[in-house]
Amino acid sequence: MISDKILKRVSKPGRYIGGEYGQILKDKNDIKCRWAFCFPDTYEIGMSNLGMRILYGSLNTHPDIWCERCYTPWEDMQKEMRENNIPLWALESGDPLAEFDIVAFTLQYELCYTNVLTMLDLAGIPLMASERDESCPIIIGGGPCAYNAEPVADFFDLFSIGEGEEALPELSRLYIEMKDNGSYTREAFLHEAAKLEGFYVPSLYEVSYNEDGTIKEYKPKYEDIPVKIKKRIVQNMDEAYFPDKVVMPYIETVHDRIMLEVCRGCYRGCRFCQAGNLFRPVRRRSADVLNKQAKTLFENCGYDEISLTSLSISDYPYLETLCDELLCWTEDKKIGLSLPSLRIDSFSKELMDRISSVRSSGLTFAPEAGTQRLRNVINKGVCEEDLMKAAKIAYDGGKSSVKLYFMMGLPTEQLEDLEGIAQMAEHVIDAYYQNPDRKKGSRPPQVTISVASFIPKPFTAFQWEAQDKLQVLLDKQKYLGSKITNRKIKYNWHEAKVSHLEGVFARGNRKLSVAILEAHKRGLMFDSWDEYFDYEKWMQVFADCGIDPAFYANREYAEDEILPWDIIDIGVTKEFLLREKKAAYAEKVTPNCVEKCSGCGANKLGGENSCCPKA
Asked: Facing residues of 489 across strands?
């Protein structure tokens, strides 16, 4: 464990000491497979990640498997570690990562890639998969970014594609079996792992390129491994593992509360949304199961807030029933209930009454685009009338603060669409003063609009689109700002330079690993943090490595082009995405999955309690 002398010299020493209530300790003599689960960002962010909580608990339900945690140390601790020759360690045991069997990274965001290399470097583990020998742990990646793992493929031994609650224990069983029967070598294990559903071993696939830099072919090196890797899903969410207690942090974290995973997936089909396709088909937990999970977590953790998490929480068909069941016991205990972004067309007075019965945060809606034409292009399926109705319900309930999410740079966008964002915000303000039923004495209305820059993501109808060039995004941000003159409207926007770099990595191929490695060597890390992000340094890295970032972010990909992520099968077909792209340019709305099946292909994956019947 780290010494008190060093802890006194660093900020937030609670990040590094472990020993929290709820952590899982085991006798190493009983363990046959040790995991170090790494979150490539700070402790405060990683401890708030629900996926990490689930996988940590799932692996630890097995008596002979021990999963521990590790996070990226802040720069002051990194300096102490290097000066004192302290290798990166896991919080539970204090053992160095290099001593573990498997070191796993969850890849939640493209700008965490340099942090992965920072952690491997601090652990003394070779950065390149090709340089690791039999003494090294197996390095595995997972999470949303693993669906296009190519930019970091050279740094990982394998990737878990899809949901890991069942897949990671299965991989552990393979490891234990091969160790026990004496057949284990790194090469043999990776070959066998590649045969398991949902695991991608990049070194076992050869990639060739055309003269123009596009991909010519992905070719398996062996006939007994799949040509395409099919994602893993959990079939029945009611029977799926969910933690009955969590590790309680010593310091404040980003989301320090009970998080209930209501369902996975979304049936709406927004054409820019990657998560809505990655997690198809939609699978739900029943209200009774969720209520029991909430009670158990409260009894074991004592949190005073419950957050219902889902890609589209107000589309959960049993939401009112769930809220009623929760209110039966949460009101007396003064437990708050919070909901993430709400669909404006499924927000109701009944829901408002329920979430107003307990402490709740301000209401957040996501119209995404400022005009109906553009909302049809992106298949949002809502209109301004829906927003005005939702605003009135909120004002009737005593709310005066509303947050609206939008995107700019969407395909076919015009200046009129940006003006529409400012106009919608004005209309929400007007709705407050035009509402005769608003509560007397309530605060003046405040509308916050947050505008992100569009990034073409893999496995979406817009995966072939070009991202707006940096200067175009900057000009659009300035233009929208000039249209907002009401002091009751607060305008926030996402840094365009960050979005540009994210766009590069989102659609990148293996050639980008050279730049990521060089960026690490030049000290780049914590790229998602404002105080560390350095766009000019990244552009210099690309230039010095002979890489044109516009090739990945600002180029329109050909519809018949082999894409870096084509090696992955998420269930949703490329043919469906192409149909959706054409529908977007025709400004045609596709019905959601409940109204009509549009043949995306995800029904072949099955899933209990889903709106998508198995094929």
From this structure: 447
